[in-house]
TrEMBL record:
<feature type="domain" description="Thioredoxin-like fold">
    <location>
        <begin position="49"/>
        <end position="133"/>
    </location>
</feature>
<dbReference type="InterPro" id="IPR012336">
    <property type="entry name" value="Thioredoxin-like_fold"/>
</dbReference>
<keyword id="KW-0732">Signal</keyword>
<dbReference type="InterPro" id="IPR041737">
    <property type="entry name" value="SoxW"/>
</dbReference>
<dbReference type="Pfam" id="PF13098">
    <property type="entry name" value="Thioredoxin_2"/>
</dbReference>
<feature type="signal peptide">
    <location>
        <begin position="1"/>
        <end position="22"/>
    </location>
</feature>
<dbReference type="InterPro" id="IPR036249">
    <property type="entry name" value="Thioredoxin-like_sf"/>
</dbReference>
<protein>
    <submittedName>
        <fullName>Thioredoxin fold domain-containing protein</fullName>
    </submittedName>
</protein>
Length: 195
């Protein structure tokens, strides 16, 4: 009886186990162990991501950001979201008010906070999706194939990563139409009641 109780308890814990949450670093940003630590040279990071068979995405966050916390605690702990992003993207984290050096595609060396201003990042989290190949000239904001300002619900968040990965920005299917189509497919399959 005691052994059976242990098995039932172990099964219950595995079903209701809470995924490990990202630690908060000294800079006040949540740290995912699968985010990439780089020298923040955008051209090198795009090349490195491509060599890994992935796309580069830059995520801007700030200390005390409740939406960044939501992204880490609700979205990036969801196995479907996390596993898709880990398999297809190299994520590099930026502190919107940070002082680490960043090298833009045009060669200009900036701090994270001056890069945020130059690239028009106003909200956190903001995710900038980079092209598969670095352009010959221009800046990050000119090269970005898409931008996601803010943390959304699971399907909007995940579908943006899928849309970029599938190069939806090169087609006539705008993200909103793509997202609506995917939501309808999820409803039809019974995986989703409402978004």
């Amino acid at each position: 009886m005691k052994h059976a109780l242990k098995i039932v308890l172990a099964c219950w814990l595995s079903i209701f186990a809470v995924p490990a949450l990202a630690e908060v670093g000294e800079d006040g940003l949540h740290k995912e162990d699968w985010f990439s630590l780089t020298f923040k040279d955008i051209r090198e990071d795009i090349d490195s991501a491509r060599e890994e068979g992935k796309r580069l995405a830059l995520v801007f966050e700030q200390r005390g950001c409740i939406y960044c916390k939501k992204m880490h605690e609700e979205l990036l702990t969801d196995p479907e979201v996390r596993d898709y992003i880990k398999a297809n993207y190299k994520i590099v984290q930026y502190n919107m008010f940070g002082d680490e050096e960043v090298t833009d595609l045009d060669g200009e060396v900036l701090t994270e906070k001056t890069a945020a201003r130059k690239w028009g990042v106003l909200f956190t989290p903001t995710i900038l999706f980079m092209p598969e190949t670095a352009p010959e000239d221009g800046t990050v904001v000119q090269a970005a194939v898409s931008t996601m300002p803010g943390a959304f619900g699971k399907w909007t968040f995940l579908n943006m990563f899928r849309w970029v990965h599938d190069k939806g920005y090169e087609t006539d299917e705008h993200f909103q139409k793509y997202h609506a189509r995917v939501i309808e497919e999820l409803r039809a399959s019974g995986r989703l009641d409402a978004e």
